[in-house]
Amino acid sequence: MSSLICFRPKQVEEAREHNSPDLDLSDRSISKLVDIPGLFTLKNLTRLTLSHNKLDAVPPHMIELTSLETLNLFNNYIEELPTNLSSMQNLKHLSIGMNRLYALPRGFGSFPKLEILDASYNNLTENSLPGNFFLLETLRALYLSDNDFEIIPEDIGQLTKLEVLALRDNQLIALPKAIGDLPKLKELHIQGNRLTVLPPELGKLDLYSGNTALKAENNPWVPPIASQFQVGVSHVFEYIRSETYKFLYGRHVQAGAAPPPKTNSNAKKTSRREVWGKK
Q1: 205 alpha-carbon distance from chain centroid
Q2: How far is CA 97 from CA 75, 120, 169, 221, 268, in A?
Q3: For the packed helices 233-240 and 243-255, what is the interaxial angle rounded to 10 degrees?
Q4: 103 and which of 21, 128, 196, 248 could share a cystine (Cβ 3.0–4.6 Å)?
Q5: What's the whole-model pTM score?
Q6: Which residues have CB under 8 Å from 3's CB, separation 6+?
Q7: pLDDT tens across 143-169, in order?
Q8: Pair 171, 194: CB distance under 8 Å
């Protein structure tokens, strides 16, 4: 059965007739974008919403929407993205969360204007990122929660405009020291990982006053850090800035203790599978 039956294709014609910059085709059971006549001729479209559908692929034709600034593909069945996607010169907000991605394509870091990337709720690891990923120097918000990262590369320090970094519910066993090189960072979400210590370099940031936030619950912190969290995040920062902590951190790293066991990522993602359902 054609996916066109599931929504009224006149929306595309209306968008063309009214020169509309916004087209919302969410929750329409669409399985193939090539089945939507005229979609890729909407040259003035700046926002396209395709969330909560049944898409298993993003066609290379997407780059024909040359004015697109926001592309929302949240909650589909997508396993792979086209390598030419990063040639979309005006794209600022890309949502590819809650899909089935195991890797991001080669050259993904070439988006010239990308400011917000949501790749949460996928199957990504540190090996899923292309070599140029951290050349996305325009990024202000990066959402990688609910994936399978054990580490985040030190190259993240290149994202100097980053204000929000969400790494909740991964398999992280350590944070990169380079997080301390993100001068504009206002929110860091690291809940539900396997973290036991924090790098002293994190102390260069202020994530405890004003409109800033450090969310770090549900980690197996070593007792000194755990006790500081019980008092408050500001006390955590005061502690990790101390010479005492820096000394203890160095000894901890040298000891090379085995990381905590992995959490059950399949159980963690059960709710996602329920949303996806069976294809």
Answers
A1: 21
A2: 6, 5, 14, 28, 15
A3: 80
A4: 128
A5: 0.93
A6: 28, 29, 30, 31, 32, 35, 36, 54
A7: 999 999 999 999 999 999 999 999 999
A8: yes
List beta partners, residue 215: 189
Place of tokens 């450090």: 214
pLDDT tens figures, 71-129: 999 999 999 999 999 999 999 999 999 999 999 999 999 999 999 999 999 999 999 99
Residue 33's identity, in one-letter code, is L
Contact 173, 149 (CB under 8 A): no
CA 109 vs CA 44, 83, 139, 162: distances in Å: 25, 11, 10, 15
- For residue 246, how far is the Cα from the chain centroid? 30
pLDDT digits (tens, 9 = 90+) for 220-269: 999 999 999 999 999 999 999 999 999 999 999 999 889 999 987 666 55
Task: Return the CA Rg of the chain.
Answer: 21
